[in-house]
Write a structure and sequence with these properties.
The chain is mainly α and 279 residues long. It is built from 14 helices and five strands.
């Protein structure tokens, strides 16, 4: 917020879940006064029933940036969704939009036959990507199967992994804290979200839990509680654990990018100095 005001600009969100209007508490969207103080984009602009992928994010964000750069010298891209940020900065291959009926059929197959069956199917449809994907990540395996079936060709054939040139300069700032402090803040935030009504928010979405947007930390654990598989206490414990694990994966991903300048969030002056030197 301070940076947006300093540079008299607007914020484009690259959070893959804050984009959904039905998910407010569990995605920790900015407070109403923050949204009013600085113009934000891609916050509650879509429904969980909409298909919004990394490719859509890239196309819609680039279209927005083209308009904003006619009025602003800088624009802030804020968020921690790895694939979305990578798509905006480096580009992504065009992947076909998955038909909703096909998505439901594949998910029903997964529920009936399990992950191992989906792995076997992927190995047949795309043996190249089968060797590359994390076979323990059900979401990735299922999505690859969906793409193969939708496109009528293998996922690996659609992926060129060619970096696209952008007509704007990109300055990357990464924020991190000491692990103990970071994990404490994550646990604390989960407690606050529960106090704010996350359970009720998730319960309203429970009938639609098969939607891809709802395969999200904070919701899927509560869905297990609503289904009678675990206790509420266990669900909260898992939300905290899975949130910490996700933060760890984020840091591992972003640390591979040597162009990111890392700071503690409190180092405002150093962050500004770093940005100004690269403008």
């Amino acid at each position: 917020m301070r940076l947006a005001k300093r540079y008299n600009t607007e914020i484009s969100s690259s959070d893959s879940r804050q984009v959904y209007r039905e998910m407010r508490i569990g995605t920790a969207v900015p407070e109403p006064e923050q949204l009013q103080a600085v113009k934000h984009h891609f916050i509650h602009t879509h429904s969980v029933y909409d298909y919004f992928s990394s490719w859509e994010c890239e196309q819609q964000t680039l279209s927005l940036l083209e308009k904003l750069f006619q009025q602003k010298d800088q624009v802030l891209l804020v968020g921690g969704s790895m694939m979305y940020i990578d798509a905006i900065c480096n580009g992504i291959d065009e992947i076909p939009t998955i038909d909703e009926q096909l998505r439901k059929e594949v998910f029903q197959q997964y529920e009936a036959e399990g992950l191992e069956a989906m792995r076997r199917q992927l190995k047949i449809l795309d043996p190249v990507f089968y060797e590359q994907v994390d076979l323990k990540n059900a979401k990735r395996v299922i999505h690859a199967v969906e793409i193969c079936l939708m496109a009528g060709k293998s996922y690996s054939e659609l992926r060129s992994n060619t970096k696209k040139e952008r007509n704007f300069n990109i300055v990357k700032i990464g924020l991190n804290r000491e692990r103990e402090e970071l994990y404490h803040r994550i646990n604390q935030r989960v407690d606050i979200m529960m106090q704010q009504g996350l359970e009720a928010e998730a319960r309203a979405l429970f009938p639609h839990r098969e939607l891809n947007a709802l395969n999200t930390v904070g919701y899927k654990e509560l869905f297990e509680y609503f289904a009678g598989n675990i206790s509420l206490e266990k669900a909260v414990e898992l939300i905290k654990r899975n949130s910490r694990r996700y933060a760890k994966r984020q840091l591992s991903w972003f640390r591979r990018d040597k162009t990111i300048n890392w700071f503690n969030p409190e180092d405002y002056d150093a962050i500004v100095d770093c940005i100004d030197k690269q403008l």
